[in-house]
Design brief:
heterodimer; A: alpha/beta; Rossmann fold; seven-stranded mixed β-sheet; five-stranded mixed β-sheet; B: alpha/beta; five-stranded parallel β-sheet; two-stranded antiparallel sheet; 7 strands; about 45% helix
């Protein structure tokens, strides 16, 4: 098996799915010529009809993807930065998410919105570095995928494209250049199945997206003292609660690390979902780690104060496990 | 453009059915026996009737919160719409919508948008699908004058023009965005003038004259089907009733309302025209209206006699595949 970058794994998934199903097409701003490049080169094989550069119109990009999906296409819309998704929010929340329910399943919206999110000295500042996925966990009718490595990215994107629901697929910018083994053949990873990235017995660390790497490094550095289990939910909707609950019943301790701001965030949702089932197994109060409730500042020295880092994760683990 | 007798009578029946349906709906609502947000199309019936007459079965229509007329004109049974307004399991959406988000997939009508301007981008995507699939379907997006101030209007018309999409944007300019007179929410005189900003054709037509509506749209539909490309069509009408069923419109000058009701009621005008053209006489029209009245009364009975949706179905189809429901 060869190693590929995360961005290349995404491109492989898009290419394979476009070959597999003529209804799959991609669109977004400057996707053939600029930006992070997941769609780069696809136009040569599939032509401009199926690889569409769009005007800077996030409402129309998302909304027209909804409409095309209603008519049997499988659009994969790219939003250049997740921050820009807010412009098309109505089309996701009021249109895409409601079609199946309001039509009693007669209509479906098989679309994917891909968008880069997250920070860590990308230098984007307050409107180009946010982690917004928590917001979407509160909207029934959409699925939410946040892969943490190239292998998962390819398998999950293929599943997302084949899924009959609107799927938000958020990719951490830091991950794009990360390399990992990716099979060149067709494989999918089901939405709603967590992955135990490292087994352990002392504490369960649930980490998402870019935070998986930090958590695995923290686990490695603390391995002589603490046996850490690292679980990546991979999809937040549907959320594989059982894998996490089983782990917590074993370890009795829980830390949830996600780059979203803490208030109303994914971290709290996971903690409470787990506690409802495993409260009496807990040996120590669960802990949430996320971004401060602060916009992302530009300066690197400020930014690292806001977002979770490996050092912060280690500190939390030590705090929980040394009590 | 020749319009045959059968078409002329069909359009009258459609318009009258809409009026009788909505009169009944409004009455029941005002008697306090119906819930929800009901937006009627009094004064706008000729648009729905004329446009639908020009469409083919394969065409796709995106309706909005003021949508009963569109669905009735397309052939959705009044029984199912009434049942939906009562929240019954026999309704178009099995009680999940009420009046605002009707659906009829068998007639090419996806879920209507209750968000002003919300369907404009989605309809544009439907036309994009037709453009890629080359299926010769034309997509219609219905919205009001208020929606032309929403950003999605601009984004969509630009995109449809750029990509030559087979879509017709139909603005039912009823001269009020909720309670705000059009002159107070936009400065342009003709909404169709905005089409020139997107290098697309734009026309303004009297929307109270069903024959004019049909004639104006027929060629545009045919052109969109053959050559692709969007058009912005503005039909000028007057909302003869309030914004919603409970609204008696105290913000509108009485004189203005009276004048439009007396001079521009599309149904009264059309009946006079049909009599003048000797297509129908008064007794024949009365007979048609009596039949429709009975049909609507029967629809109400059907709705009232229908069951409520079952509680255990409440979370079905939140997601397309049931087993993945969270």
């Amino acid at each position: 098996m060869s190693k590929y970058m995360y961005i290349e794994a995404l491109r492989m998934a898009l290419q394979e799915e476009m070959r597999r199903d003529k209804n799959v097409f991609v669109m977004g701003e400057d996707i053939t010529r600029y930006g992070f490049g997941a769609n780069r080169g696809l136009v040569d094989e599939f032509g401009p009809e199926r690889v569409r550069n769009t005007p800077i119109s996030e409402g129309a990009i998302i909304g027209s993807a909804v409409g095309a999906a209603l008519r049997g296409m499988r659009p994969v819309a790219e939003i250049m930065f997740v921050d820009f998704i807010m412009i098309g929010m109505d089309q996701i929340v009021n249109q895409a998410a409601k079609m199946s329910y309001l039509s009693n399943g007669e209509l479906s919206v098989p679309m994917v919105i891909r968008a880069p999110e997250g920070s860590e000295w990308f230098g984007g500042g307050a409107q180009h570095s946010q982690t917004l996925h928590s917001i979407f966990m509160n909207i029934p009718g959409i699925k939410l995928v946040i892969p943490s490595n190239p292998y998962d990215a390819k398998g999950l994107l293929k599943s997302a494209i084949r899924d009959d629901n609107p799927v938000l697929f958020f990719e951490h910018k830091q991950l794009y250049t990360q390399k990992g083994e990716v099979p060149e053949d067709d494989y999918t990873i089901p939405l709603g199945k967590a992955s135990i990235k490292k087994e352990g017995t002392d504490i369960t660390v649930v980490a998402t997206s870019w935070m998986v790497k930090h958590s695995l490094e923290a686990a490695e550095e603390l391995k002589d003292k603490i046996s850490i289990e690292v679980i990546d939910p991979r999809t937040l909707v549907p959320l594989d609660k059982n894998t996490i609950i089983d782990s917590v019943k074993k370890t009795g301790k829980l830390l949830v690390v996600d780059e979203s701001p803490i208030n109303g965030g994914v971290q709290g949702e996971i903690v409470s979902a787990v506690l409802e089932e495993s409260f009496w197994n807990m040996e120590f109060p669960p802990k949430r780690l996320g971004s401060l409730n602060t916009p992302i500042p530009f300066s690197g020295s400020l930014e690292k104060e806001v977002i979770p880092t490996k050092e912060k994760i280690k500190k939390e683990i030590l705090n929980i496990c040394s009590s | 453009m020749a319009i045959n007798k059968e078409q002329k009578i069909r359009m009258l029946k459609t318009m009258s059915k809409i009026r009788i349906f909505e009169d009944m709906l409004q009455k029941i609502y005002r008697d306090g026996k119906l819930d929800g947000h009901l937006h009627t199309s009094h004064g706008q019936e000729a648009i729905a009737a004329g446009v639908m007459e020009a469409l083919s079965e394969k065409d796709i229509i995106f309706s909005n919160h003021r949508g009963h007329a569109h669905f009735l004109a397309r052939g959705t049974s009044p029984r199912r719409i009434f049942a939906e307004c009562y929240g019954k399991v026999t309704g178009t959406n099995k009680g999940r919508s009420g009046s605002m988000y009707l659906v009829d997939t068998k007639r090419g009508m996806p879920v209507a948008s209750g968000i002003v301007g919300g369907n404009i981008c989605v309809a544009t995507g439907s036309a994009l699908a037709s453009s890629i699939k080359k299926d010769n379907a034309v997509t219609i997006s219905f919205f009001g004058d208020g929606a032309t101030n929403i950003g999605f209007f601009h984004e969509s018309l630009n995109m449809a023009s750029l990509w030559n999409l087979p879509i017709i944007y139909i603005c039912e300019n009823n001269q009020y965005g909720e309670a705000t007179k059009r002159e107070e929410h936009q400065k342009i005189k003709r909404i169709s003038d905005r089409a020139s900003a997107y290098s697309m054709p734009g026309i303004t037509v009297d929307g109270t004259d069903v024959l004019k509506v049909y004639k104006s749209i027929k060629d545009i539909v045919d052109k969109a089907r053959k050559e692709g490309g969007p058009t912005l069509v503005e039909y000028v009408v007057y909302r003869l009733r309030g914004h919603s069923a409970g609204d008696v419109g105290p913000y509108r000058p009485k004189k203005e309302e009276e004048e439009w009701n007396e001079k521009h009621d599309p149904i009264r005008k059309y009946k006079e025209e049909l009599i003048k053209q000797k297509v129908l006489d008064n007794p024949e029209i009365e007979k048609i209206e009596d039949g429709l009245q009975k049909e609507i009364e029967e629809a109400v009975s059907f709705a009232l006699g229908s069951g409520d949706p079952l509680a255990e179905t409440v979370s079905k189809y939140v997601y397309s595949e049931d087993e993945n429901n969270e």
